[in-house]
Amino acid sequence: MKSIVLVYLLFITVAHSHSACDEISFVTRIGWGAREPTSITNLTSKPLSFFVVHHAEDPPSCYDDESCIERVREIQIFHQNSQDWVDIGYHFLVGENGKVYEGRGWDRQAAYSPGWNNDAYGICFIGNFNTSSPNEKALKAAHSWIKCGIERRYVTKDFYVITHRQSQRPGYTTCPGDTLFNVVRSWPQAYKQKNGDESKSRSLPAKIVALSQALSSVANSWKDIVNSFKTSRSTPITRIIRLGSTHFDQRSTVLKAIDIPANKASEFSNAIVIDYNLPLK
């Protein structure tokens, strides 16, 4: 009798155990026939607190398994052959067939936005979303994927979502398209820029802001108060930037970085900023 009761209780426990990860139809790299990366760089720390949303723009949307696999392969080939990246640039991709495709996965650095590749997970909706939104299947898959990341402790519970265009200087990109941009801004975890009537905008937290954003802000509006930005003391030693005889370390202010050569700016943008108390443009 005791064994029957124990089995029954175990059944009840399993029946009521629900995971967002179970909601995802997930396609591994092997499943979509990924090429091998030419090199691998792991994330320096986890869990992460940011997601950066993209759209693929070209190729177009996909609605069935065969075409979505074809699209993901095309994106990887473009990134490796034309962009000279070591692998597909995103951590994960989402098709309008409702499936999530493994890019670089939970543990590796990506290549989707300078200054964010080691500090945020990049998710790409396959298709062009300037004038239309991803369908409900794709949006539900993305939300379940984010929840799954929290459950598996790859993502903090108090995470933020931003779009590609918000991760860089104004005018850098229109990604993820105007319609998807507005969709993402409606999400509870979305960071909204503080302008217009967005009085309930969610501010980015201090200590987790890419230096590329600080440089963008300084270049656009705030050169007179640039000294309020300082790079994090916890910045790994490997992120010290050497430009000729000039060294920028974790104690350097952004003021010292304003005139660095354009071809070196992306290196410096990998640092993290603390004491970031101004609204981002």
Secondary-structure topology with pairs:
Elements: H1 2-16, E1 25-27, H2 29-32, E2 48-55, H3 65-81, E3 92-94, E4 99-102, E5 121-125, H4 136-151, E6 155-163, H5 178-185, E7 209-210, H6 211-220, E8 230-231, E9 241-243, E10 246-248, H7 262-268, E11 272-274
Parallel strand pairs: 1-4, 2-5, 2-6, 3-5
Antiparallel strand pairs: 3-4, 7-11, 8-11, 9-10
Family: Belongs to the N-acetylmuramoyl-L-alanine amidase 2 family.
Keywords: Immunity, Signal
Domain Peptidoglycan recognition protein family: 24-168
Summarize the structure.
The protein has seven helices and eleven strands. With 281 residues, the protein is α/β, with parallel strands linked by helices.
Descriptive overview:
With 281 residues, the protein is of the alpha/beta class. The protein has seven helices and eleven strands. It has two domains: 16-185, Peptidoglycan recognition protein-like (Lysozyme-like); 209-274, no CATH class. 27% of the residues lie in helices and 16% in strands. A hairpin with a 4-residue loop joins strand 3 and strand 4 (99-102). It is globular.
